[in-house]
């Protein structure tokens, strides 16, 4: 039987409106199946998958307990939402709705029907519903008694499991592309940085594709494939199927991490190895194919020696690892003791107690996943080693492999002296792919030019692709102000520039936030809005164009006219790296809430005996290292984490960074992200990204705002609730503010360093580094909300201080007080100072730095407000004067830069 025929029977085993009528499930499931052209479901066959999934999710429940649908529990926190529906009305509404929707499916093939049901049914239900019920479609639970996982998560696991008499003919499988961060971070241009992330996402998805085609999309437990751009692209472009709301431009955002976990329907060792080998070989072959295609399109005259070296270098990439844990061993179902190599005997003892009664593999999922992670860790320690032994000039990007391709207008001997066979690309390919004086190895060249391959083989969206440079990010607010307040001057300057310097690749895609005001034809690359770059030598060397000095001076005057109306562009931008805290522990079930928060409140408080609850709690305490009676990790909970992370990256992150603000995402994989941001919006973006991670946001007038009072873990967007990680989850962030001319490799290294620093200081905070052009650094670290005052968001306070130090405002505090404060406390901090002394001196200096109307009452009020907010930052820094001064200085710097 194919996976899709199996899928359809299991998908309708329980109806999606299950919780509204728990009695007539069988007849309703068959009724809905027939609406979609699915034959009668033999319960004795397909019940097995539901038995395993239900045991995983609801095994810790005595028989005979009944409960009406009154609550939806958040799977990862103690929170819940109360609900109340007229169940008879809802059942009739669902019945009519599914009968209507089913007409679009009834004549489809089983494969197409399965894929489109999985992808489109939730959307179609939402599109055809109104009122309160519509809000809950994505989070409707699978059970009324333990309502901590949705019907969609339950159906995902049911349809993923292969049914057999033993129940256990499945394996847990993990695939990963190693050394992801080092591959991404080796970059000189923003396009290198971005393409590294995109390549890993694309190649990981290609590996997933073999699992999807053989076992179905629901077999991928992590990440959640629902609505993922690459998955939607695959369904539309490769399969020709219908995907509601498909947008081809979404494929440009990398959202697939470099690893995935799947439940595959086999325990056969040979079949698993063949599957893994096919994935590994296909991924490597795809990258090799990309290299050949790029050479074919850009470099036609590569010599045989260089071509062989080129292929040898790209064959090293990527480094792939996989492990699998079958649920059967030597022909018998897996037992607890079969995992003894991974755990201490004491821990397994308590798992035996839980497992002995049911003998259902569903109860061991947490053990299986932990063993899987330990296995991949051990496998990575056995890395393959190959010694290249290359001698010669090394690549300008990675510094590891020999240069094979270079561009050197004058001194090409610099490269040929060390690599006599290297290929000179001078004036042969567009300069956006290689700069003057730059030499690249094969791997870095392919990474730089990967859009060439993508536009030919994947999607035409990548045709003429451009990723914004650091100068484009830094100048974005200047451009926004210019087209709003100096549109004539702006258009004149751009037109004159292109008349004088007709270089096509300098026309770049504007940031999404200003696309409605600025099209690509009129968006000159940001570097050329800085007066110091309008230099005849720079233009000749970088663009290969000789410019008449008289015309160049006219161009400078045009630019100065824009400056006269909107000011000069800030030369600094920000790079953000966000990483979820303790994600390994979340995925291992070590941070799940206690067991009582899995149950409907009425069930726990009134329908379970004290004896049952006490025994259950004691058993769970024994298997958890922190001695808490936590919920067991199940595939449905795993899937819920995956769904929450998927919602974060697809529903909120792009909205925040690109639609609402002047930013550009590099990667958004769920539990981590990278983004460039214009300084104008930095604090806003940081704040929204942090609180969206734990679902503590809301939409106001169509825009996201932080709302830390929302602790439910559910966010209402477009009239529908979306699951998030919830209030117990946090994230840390590294931020670097750098000049657009600062070498990108240094900035990237620093942002990862700041991410580690934020975690080292205690997690749930951000570390921000200002890298001044002169080589000075200012580093500040602070919690997201101020200790003892949850409503005081550090970013909100810093935003206000920044505005109050803006010298363009009518009333402001001159930032000169910062250095005076620092110097006065430089010696005193060694012996310690009282908070009262700090407050008094801060008030005195700020009062002297006041600029505004000579009104004592206004001055006292403004100074008092400033000092109160500054002291909150001081206390939030743990009374660390250096940290405090740096944060205040960074906030002021963001107004104008140097």
Primary descriptors:
single chain; 898 residues; alpha+beta; Alpha-Beta Plaits; 6 domains; 23 strands
Short description:
The protein has 898 residues and is α+β, with helices and mostly antiparallel strands. Helix 28 (744-760) links the parallel strand 19 (731-739) and strand 20 (765-771).
Note the topology.
Elements: H1 3-11, H2 25-35, H3 43-58, E1 71-73, E2 80-82, H4 87-102, H5 110-127, H6 132-135, H7 151-160, E3 171-177, H8 180-185, H9 190-215, E4 220-222, H10 229-238, E5 259-264, H11 269-298, H12 304-314, E6 320-326, E7 328-329, E8 332-333, H13 345-355, H14 365-380, E9 405-407, H15 413-416, E10 423-424, E11 438-440, H16 442-448, H17 450-457, H18 470-474, H19 476-485, H20 487-500, H21 536-543, H22 549-566, E12 572-580, H23 583-587, H24 601-607, H25 610-623, H26 635-659, E13 663-668, E14 672-678, H27 682-693, E15 697-700, E16 703-706, E17 714-717, E18 720-723, E19 731-739, H28 744-760, E20 765-771, E21 777-783, H29 794-804, E22 812-813, H30 816-826, H31 828-831, H32 835-848, E23 850-851, H33 856-876, H34 881-896
Parallel strand pairs: 9-10, 19-20
Antiparallel strand pairs: 1-2, 3-5, 3-6, 4-5, 7-8, 9-11, 12-14, 12-19, 13-14, 15-16, 17-18, 20-21, 22-23
């Amino acid at each position: 039987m194919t996976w899709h025929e199996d899928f359809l029977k299991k998908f309708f085993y329980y109806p999606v409106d299950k919780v509204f009528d728990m009695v007539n499930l069988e007849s309703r499931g068959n009724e809905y199946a027939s609406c979609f052209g699915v034959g009668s479901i033999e319960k004795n066959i397909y019940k097995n998958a539901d038995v395993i999934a239900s045991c995983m999710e609801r095994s810790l429940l005595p028989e005979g307990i009944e409960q009406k649908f009154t609550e939806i529990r958040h799977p990862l926190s103690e929170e819940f939402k109360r609900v109340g529906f007229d169940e008879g009305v809802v059942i009739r509404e669902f019945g009519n709705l599914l009968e209507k929707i089913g007409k679009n499916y009834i004549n489809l093939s089983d494969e197409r029907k399965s894929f489109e049901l999985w992808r489109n049914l939730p959307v179609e239900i939402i599109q055809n519903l109104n009122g309160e019920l519509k809000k809950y479609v994505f989070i409707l639970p699978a059970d009324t008694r333990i309502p901590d996982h949705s019907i969609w998560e339950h159906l995902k696991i049911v349809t993923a499991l292969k049914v057999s008499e033993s129940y256990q003919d499945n394996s847990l499988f993990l695939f990963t592309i190693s050394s992801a961060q080092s591959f991404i971070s080796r970059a000189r241009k923003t396009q290198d940085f971005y393409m590294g992330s995109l390549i890993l996402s694309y190649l990981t998805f290609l590996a997933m594709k073999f699992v999807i085609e053989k076992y179905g999309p629901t077999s991928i437990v992590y990440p959640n494939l629902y609505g993922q751009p690459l998955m939607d692209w695959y369904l539309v472009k490769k399969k020709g199927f219908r995907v509601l709301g498909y947008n081809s431009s979404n494929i440009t955002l990398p959202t697939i991490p470099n690893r995935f976990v799947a439940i595959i329907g086999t325990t056969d060792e040979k079949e698993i190895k063949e599957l893994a080998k096919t994935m590994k070989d296909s991924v490597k072959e795809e990258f090799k194919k990309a290299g050949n295609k790029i050479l074919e399109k850009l470099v036609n005259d590569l010599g045989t020696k260089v071509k062989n070296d080129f292929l040898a270098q790209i064959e090293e990439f990527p480094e792939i690892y996989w492990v699998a844990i079958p649920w059967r061993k030597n022909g018998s179902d897996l037992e607890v003791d079969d995992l003894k190599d991974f755990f201490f005997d004491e821990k397994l003892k308590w798992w035996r107690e839980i497992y002995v009664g049911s003998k259902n593999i569903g109860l061991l999922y947490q053990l299986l996943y932990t063993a899987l992670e330990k296995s991949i860790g051990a496998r990575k320690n056995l890395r393959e080693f190959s010694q290249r032994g290359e001698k010669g000039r090394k690549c300008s990007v990675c510094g590891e492999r020999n240069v094979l391709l270079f561009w050197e207008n004058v001194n090409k001997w610099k490269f040929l002296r060390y690599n006599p066979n290297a290929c000179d690309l001078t004036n042969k390919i567009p300069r956006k792919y290689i700069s003057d004086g730059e030499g690249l190895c094969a791997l870095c060249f392919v990474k730089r030019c990967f859009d060439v391959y993508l536009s030919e083989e994947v999607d035409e969206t990548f045709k003429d692709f451009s990723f914004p440079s650091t100068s484009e990010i830094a100048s974005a607010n200047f451009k926004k102000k210019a087209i709003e307040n100096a549109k004539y001057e702006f258009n004149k300057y751009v037109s004159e520039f292109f008349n004088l310097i007709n270089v096509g690749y300098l026309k770049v895609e504007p940031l999404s936030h200003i696309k409605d005001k600025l099209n690509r034809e009129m968006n000159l690359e940001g570097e050329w809005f800085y007066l110091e770059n309008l230099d005849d030598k720079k233009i000749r060397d970088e663009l290969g164009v000789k410019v008449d000095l008289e015309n160049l001076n006219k161009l400078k005057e045009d630019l100065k006219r824009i400056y006269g109306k909107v000011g000069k562009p800030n030369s600094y931008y920000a790079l953000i790296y966000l990483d979820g805290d303790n994600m390994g522990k979340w995925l291992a079930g070590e941070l799940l809430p206690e067991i009582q928060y899995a149950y409907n409140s009425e069930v726990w408080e009134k329908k379970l005996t004290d004896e049952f609850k006490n025994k259950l709690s004691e058993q769970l305490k024994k298997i958890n290292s922190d001695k808490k009676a936590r919920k067991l990790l199940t595939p449905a909970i795993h899937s819920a984490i995956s769904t929450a992370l998927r919602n974060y990256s697809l529903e909120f992150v792009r909205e925040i960074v690109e639609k609402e603000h002047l930013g550009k995402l590099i990667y958004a994989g769920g539990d981590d992200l990278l983004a460039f941001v214009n300084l104008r919006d930095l604090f806003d973006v940081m704040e929204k990204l942090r609180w969206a991670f734990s679902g503590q946001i809301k939409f106001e007038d169509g825009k996201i705002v932080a709302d830390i009072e929302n602790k439910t873990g559910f966010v209402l967007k477009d009239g529908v609730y979306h699951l998030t990680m919830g209030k117990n989850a946090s994230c840390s962030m590294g931020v670097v503010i750098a000049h657009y001319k600062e070498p990108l490799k240094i900035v990237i290294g620093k942002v990862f360093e700041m991410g580690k620093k934020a975690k080292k200081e205690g997690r749930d905070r951000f570390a921000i580094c200002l890298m001044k052009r002169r080589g000075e650094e200012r580093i500040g670290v602070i919690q997201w909300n101020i200790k003892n005052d949850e409503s005081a968001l550090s970013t909100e306070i810093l935003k206000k201080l920044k505005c109050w130090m803006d010298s363009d405002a009518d009333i402001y505090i001159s930032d000169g007080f910062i250095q005076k404060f620092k110097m006065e406390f430089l010696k005193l901090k060694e012996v310690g100072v009282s908070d009262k002394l700090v407050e008094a001196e801060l008030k005195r200096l700020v009062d002297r730095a006041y600029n505004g109307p000579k009104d004592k009452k206004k001055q006292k009020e403004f100074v008092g407000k400033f000092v109160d907010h500054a002291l909150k930052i001081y206390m939030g820094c743990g009374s660390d004067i250096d940290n405090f001064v740096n944060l205040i200085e960074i906030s002021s710097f963001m107004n104008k830069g140097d």
